[in-house]
Queue: 3 jobs
Job 1
Amino acid sequence: MIYPIKACILLFARSTFYAQAGRFMDRFQNGHETAAQAAGQQELWILGQPPLKKYLDFVDDLGREGANGIRSDRVNEWRNANDYYELLMRTERNIADAIETFSLPSELDDCAAELAADPRFRHTFESLPTAIKMVELDRLVVCQNHVNRNFVEMLKSRLGQAADIASLFRFCLPLEEYQAPVQIREADSRRYIFRSSSTDFRFHEALMLKPGQISGHESFGQIAGVIGLVVGFSSNFLNAIHDDDSGRLVLNNGYHRACALSELGITHAPCIVQTVTRRDELDLIAKPIVANDPGYFFNSPRPPLLKDFKDPKIRKLCATKKVARTIEVSYEIRDYLVEE
């Protein structure tokens, strides 16, 4: 498809990052990453992609330099990268249209069948036509312009370069339970704090449960119903959105794994692919940045690609403070009479 291009219980859930103060780090420029590599926590950015203010705010809030750095230097770095993208629009015009995809090898049939039978897969990918394919990594269009470098390195060491095809499938589309530690505390009688170092940590949903679904709870009276507030992780599957007209694929989830695989020299990987045929379908599955500006990602001559994370002319490694994702959940109860 062608999109226009344009550059009575009340529940409250709020997700934030808490930063822990870190020591001051010397500035680095022009692709020189030595200072950041010695810093501990690092964030890998693709510069030159709008909005500029997002990058500047990130460095001010979470960079080890914070607001002490020279802002004009950051703007110049971003501007140079943006100029480089203008060059790529001529030298790599429509390169995203030629991304390679093909069917899974037959030795992965059992893995694919197990995945398709999993309730997390069925629940997440029930709306649109879905397939599991081998997808070329470097030409995936990306809508997320930074990843945690430490996590990418950890994933690389976990998989290694000599992984067999079944291990690669499980790395991209894992069914095992996520093991990131979670801290939970009661802030007050109606407010709870959940905290994890994982960026995949999120509020799931509020749902109604029947008394029979609750075990181990001793109530002081008969239970009429139960409201559950669910916090956890996503299905964590590598997946992309396919536009049936341009043929492009926008990476929707799995950025750290995709970067790790690309850096290991792995060119194609198992990926869940959902196909959209109309603009309204994007609202069902895409991130807001894609759904609000689909023309940029699906029709512009040279959108940002996964391979840009490896390009020294536009990548920037930033030393950052250590952060944790914090989800605060609170509720309110109202008890009153209404006429029937």
Job 2
Amino acid sequence: MFSFFVAGKYIKSYRKSRFISSISVIASAGIAVGMAVVIIALTVLDGFEKVVSEKIVTLNAHVKITGFGNRNLPSPESLIPEIEIKFGDRINKIEPFISKLVLIKSKNFSDGITVTGMDFDGLRRNIGAYLIEGSIDSLGENDIIIGRKLSEKLRVKLNDKLTLFTVYGEEIPSPASPPAIDVFRVAGIFESGMSEYDDLNAYIRFDKASEFFGMFGRISGYNIQLKNIDDIEPITEELQDYLGYPYYVRSVFQIYQNIFTWIDLQKEPIPIVLGLIIFVAVFNIVGTLLMIVLEKTKSIGILRTLGATRAKVTSIFLLHGFYLTLIGILFGNFLAYMLTLLQMKFDIIKLPENVYFVAHVPLHIDINNYLMISLITALISLIASFIPAYISSKIEIISAIKFD
């Protein structure tokens, strides 16, 4: 209680010394700003990982089976029941798909994209949540759903006509084997927020894709949705071992490994940044406490004369350092939280989609980040506070009383 009482008196005396008050504010502000920067960085990285992962998994499947060298696979009639019997307790849905490169052309513009044919359930699951115009349920035989970025590039809108050109079957186009050409109506427009999808992908019905691409009962692969995504790696390995050549089984994390690796790399510098920021903040606290020790030298001598032990004096300045740290931690958490809320509500900072895969800064508030940074900062600051606190306890009584 004695240490708390004296530390409280020292803190209240700030108003009598503008210099000490100013450097104390700077020390706490340094901790607050540093903490806020690190927490916001982690909030952005966690949000980015969450949003990108969700979009990639939603727009694709947990596990994708294709043919080596993108070769076509045989009719799925016998393989699907076989997989369901073998892995049915862990698989939620397995669906065949057909996917080919095509040249798509409007009246004045053209582009190369990937067109995927899926059944209605697959279309609803993959792009249903991102459909901004049109309807999947009313998708006709010669209807197509394209991304918003692609619609802007081709200068088309809902119900406009597009012409698709592609290789028919597996034959090289020639006079004897002309390319497949057909006209499609834009029946829907989706926007995922990821330019890689919105700009390069379009969807049609599975039966139309089979006819248009000349598949003759063959398919491009299978999309598999799992009951538990934690099983994704073992099931991928088991499926590959079970199916063998020419089947090529990959998880969504393997297909988009570059993106997930990039996300992980963004987190690597965080400990270094945190260390540097905390070092600066701790340096401020040590300097502030040393200044306070100099100012309170005579008071320290009087306390020692009245019977205060070295341990008591040390604890007084440790409490002082804890007070400065606590103020910085509270304001740092508050600042990080308020800035995050402002960004989430008003979308102040925008991102180029073609670089970051998303149009807006994704944020994910995780209380664990706040607690972790707060605890690390408090621990290191308290350890650093021990240096000036220990120095204060070593001041000789006579020298302290004479000090002016």
Job 3
Amino acid sequence: MKVTGTVTDETGVQTLSINSETVAVQADGSFNHAIALKTGPNVITITATDLVGNVATVTRNVTYDNRPPVTAITVGLPQYIGADGTLYIQGSTPVTLSATDDAAGVQKTEYRIDGGAWLDYTPFVIPMEGSHVIAYRSTDTVGNREPEKVLHVIVDGTSPVAAVNVAIRNTRHRVIFM
């Protein structure tokens, strides 16, 4: 990160330091110095000393965030996971997303179904029967966007069909099916 600014004093500036590193000051009082930041909170301390020994200190807190949020998906009930890992749900099965960000905070979470338009997240269901792809992602308050994640689901709203074959061998008894 570059720290830039100006420093002035009637008697002149003797020294300028940023986080204890001496920084060159130009004739017009401007300075420009690169510093390394660690991910997360950082403190930048700028100290100027004039020619008679007066000291001025300015401190700034800066949070460096270069990591995107992490979003998790939860699929409610009813659901069934097949032997091959396929996730089957009903059209009424709720789908929820939750995102966390360890630095700047989450700005938005969004999702789309089957490559459609991105939608701002609210809990949702997929009422259309068939195979679907849920894509989801989040963005933090400084613009770091998580890569798209996907979950494949099959919505099954069709009731099973039961066929009953009854063979009656003894015709002396009446059989009633209800």
